[in-house]
Every structure is written in C-alpha cells, then in structure tokens.
Amino acid sequence: MPSSQIDEPFEFDLNELLMRHSDFNKTAFPISYEPEEIVKVCRRVKAVMAEEPTLLEVSPPLVIVGDLHGQYQDLHRIFSCFSEGRVRGQQLQRFLFLGDYVDRGSNGLEVIMCLMIHKLAYPGMFNLLRGNHESALINRIYGFHDEMVQRFGSSLGEKLWNTLNETFTYFPLAALVHKKILCMHGGVGPALKSLEDIRNIERPLDDPNSNELSCALLWADPMRNSSGFTVNGVRGVSVYFGEDVVMKLCDKLKIDMIVRAHQVMQNGYSFFCQRKLVTIFSAPNYYPDKRNLGAVMKIEVDLRVGFILLQPTYKHQKGQRHFLEEFTKHNNDAEYANRIDPDRDLDQTTYEPTPTQNTTNTKSLRSKTANESGSSSSKRSK
Ligand SMILES: [Mn+2]
User: Fold this and answer.
1) pLDDT tens for residues 217-226?
2) Which of 21, 43, 196, 297 has the fewest CB atoms within 10 Å, i.e. is most exposed?
3) What CATH superfamily is the domain 14-313?
4) Cα–ligand 1 centroid distance for 295 (angstroms)
5) Is 133 among the residues known to form the active site?
C-alpha cells in the first residue's frame, strides 16, 4: 500500500465495521481488514482519546474486564453474558477494560479493533485503559508483532503494528468509578500521593516505563504478607506493594477499593487486603493445563460488586448454547458479594508471569497446584 493512502482523510463505514465485530458465531472469523481501515480507525481513536483525561471518571453501573490477551471469542462470550433478547450486551452495558488486549493469544488484532470500533461508536460506554502489553517494547516480543507480520507481511505488518502502538500511547492509564473505586491495569507505587499525580501524567506517553508512576500503574503487583514497597524481582519492572500500602492509600485518596488486572487468577478474580483490592483476569484457559477461569466484575449503581465467571471452553463444545449453560451455572454460583463483608474466604491463587506462554512449563507457577485450586474453586460455589 503506498503511504499516500495512509494519509488520506479518515472516512469509513462505522456501522459496517460494527457489524463485522458484532457476534462471534454469525460473522466471519478471522476478520479481514483493509490496511487503510486500521489506520483510519486508529487515527480517529487517537483524536477521541486525546480529549480524555489520563484518569477517566466513570459512573456505575458498569462492567469491568481484565486481561483479554487476544482471546477474541472470549470477548464475545463476555458481551453475550449481558445480552437481552436480540440486543447484544455490548450495546446495553457501560464497560471499563483494564488493558492487555494484545499478545499471548492469537487474535490481538480482532480484540483491539473490536474495542476501538466500539469506542468510536459508543465513546462514553466503552472505556479502554492501557495495559503493560500496549507498548511496542513489550508487544514486539510477546506475540502481537508476529501476528501483524503474519497477517500483512513484513513491511505492511510492521507499519500497521507501529500505527497501533502509536495509538496505544494515547490510552488513559487509570479510571475512577464514582470517585470511590480506583482502577488500573497493574497497581500503585510510591510516587502515587494524590489522584492529581495520575491526572498530571501527560499523554501521548511513548514509554510508560519512563515515568515511575505510569510504570507502577501498568506493572506493579500486590504482595501478600509484605509491607511497604519491595522490588518486583519476578517481572524485573516496578514494585510489589503490601497490604499496608493499600490500606493507607485508600484512606489518603478517600477511595473504597482498588480494582486491577495483570495476574492470572485461578477463579478469574481474587480479593486482597480485606477486600480493599481485587484482581480480575478475563482470559479463561490462559494456562490450558490449569484451566483457569476468567471473570468480569459488575458494579451496580449502588456500588455493590459481583462477578461473572467464564469457564474455559474447548473446540468440541462449539456453539453458543454451551456458553450460555456454563454461564448460567457459574453465574448462579457467583452470588453478589457485598464488599463490606470481609469474612468471605476466596481463592487466592496467583501465577507468576511467564516470559512466553509456554503451557508445559509449570515451574513458573507458584502457590497451589491445579488440584488444590480446583477444590477451592468448587468450595467457593457455596
Ligand atoms: Mn499485564
């Protein structure tokens, strides 16, 4: 494609693009894209996001979604959980996505295009934060660059990959729900003293690791039985933060709770620090040998929170009926959790990040074995 085409004004049929991303079972997959329409969508998303603050303000009710990592079919399963009759869930709910759309899984392009197109169609209803994988330095290595080159060839693939990464530099870094629930991909760091510190981070932000606070927002992890901040030796980036940090920060920032993603949870979500922090991971079967669940969090208008769990599904279980059966079963189990009640004992299995998605390498997993997490997952269905 000659570069002059890339510079043309961005006119495209948004409705047609929405249709192409409307329903996994009724539309072609993988989705084919004209290179120019990727460029045009990116250009318009940049313009929309340039107007948004670095700390988004979002109102309940809404659905919060954690890591997706190129699992396009699972994104549609999430949408279908909220469908009513013929109206699809993506048209009925406000969403906040916590980042890590690309890498690891094989359909990062479908995931990010679907989300960006919905952002353009419903800007107030689709809120997209940046994850640590929405950075060229990371997604060159962990899958997205390869995906783009495989689909478009090395020269055009590289060019489109660059265009998408440039768009990521405009993505907001955190969100505040009803002034009470602070959300980000990774976590918090010592540089976070007030919410203004987040608002003051300027975008476009080329390398989030160049700024201590943006680095923590995208990379940091909570650490049980620790206090203060410690070196995040496993990731080699940013910090671990202890329960005392969460307690003090909730007090200081006058917030009730922190919601973040970034770590695989066997049951899709897990509380930390007396329910002051919750991790949500929305890519079921991210570790196929662990059969981890995915979860999304629903925040009601009165700030009650609940979780919807997604079972891993397999090729032999094709079809929406299975998804709905699984969803119904697990949604009944996932009764609404009142976050004022600190007694509920939930599974706290976490997995360390791995350099590549090598599913046979279980050395990188810590905490419990698959069997142990399996039993705790059945326990919590009470
Ligand atoms: Mn991450």
Assistant:
1) 999 999 998 9
2) 196
3) Metallo-dependent phosphatases (3.60.21.10)
4) 15
5) yes
